[in-house]
Design goal:
about 220 residues, Rossmann fold, binds S-adenosyl-L-homocysteine
Length: about 220
């Protein structure tokens, strides 16, 4: 691995391991998820000026009013998604920095990801190329309708919050699959987990969270 990816000082493997330890303490127990987070260098997903803060467990700005999600939230959502049998094909709405995308790409066969801000998408694309993660397909679009041409997905993850859960997304989840999505008004969002079963849809409300809003159209 090259020096930039390996990091030094505040971006080194040692600093990264401290973050992994903190995630364990906060209740993340999937070794697969922790291992992926240990190997994907979060510091390349933020501007150089913020690289020294990349292994703090906080969301950070990535420009255009958007944020890279807090590592704990990335770990938590990924762990929940990976709890179903054989997750191979994932749809992500809200590529952002591409960090969550990279974690998913290290764990599953194929990731489809949609972003409505072109400049963020192109940076994310470059970063995943640098990490040699080739199992990701990008789409520049409003992701609220999902990506029906590629459906169905084993799981769908949304990393921006609508006020209400969009119905089109659940239709693209396969039987037995899951949708994880933050929803609610700003300041009072909750993480929702929806499961598609033979008996119907089950819905659980998980943690209180804070995501940027899911917006319409493209920029
Ligand atoms: N998982 C990302 C989160 C970035 S913030 C990361 O950790 O970097 C959420 C992202 O969702 C932003 O980049 C925002 O532009 C994008 N977004 C918001 N509404 C969207 C929509 N309707 N379709 C696609 N992307 C959307």
């Amino acid at each position: 691995m090259n020096q930039r990816l390996m990091g030094i000082g505040m971006t080194s493997q040692r600093t990264r391991l401290r973050l992994i330890q903190r995630l364990r303490e906060k209740g993340i127990s999937s070794e697969k998820v922790l291992d992926a987070m240990c190997h994907v260098p979060r510091h390349i997903f933020v501007d150089e000026a913020l690289a020294s803060r990349a292994y703090e467990d906080t969301a950070l700005p990535i420009g255009l009013g958007q944020t890279i999600s807090q590592p704990f939230i990335v770990a938590r959502m990924t762990e929940i998604l990976m709890q179903t049998d054989s997750v191979k094909k994932v749809l992500e709405i809200g590529t952002g920095s591409g960090y969550q995308t990279a974690i998913l790409a290290s764990l599953v066969e194929q990731v489809y990801t949609i972003e409505r801000i072109q400049s963020l998408q192109s940076k994310a694309r470059q970063r995943l190329r640098e990490l040699k993660l080739k199992n990701v397909r990008f789409k520049f679009d409003d992701g609220i309708m999902g990506w029906p041409e590629q459906a169905e997905y084993d799981v769908i993850i949304v990393t921006a919050a609508p006020t209400n859960i969009p119905s089109d997304l659940l239709a693209q989840v396969k039987m037995g699959g899951r949708l994880i999505i933050p929803a609610g008004e700003d300041g009072q969002q909750t993480l929702h987990l929806l499961e598609k079963t033979e008996e119907g849809i089950t819905q659980h409300q998980l943690d209180a969270v804070q995501f940027v809003p899911l917006l319409g159209g493209t920029v």
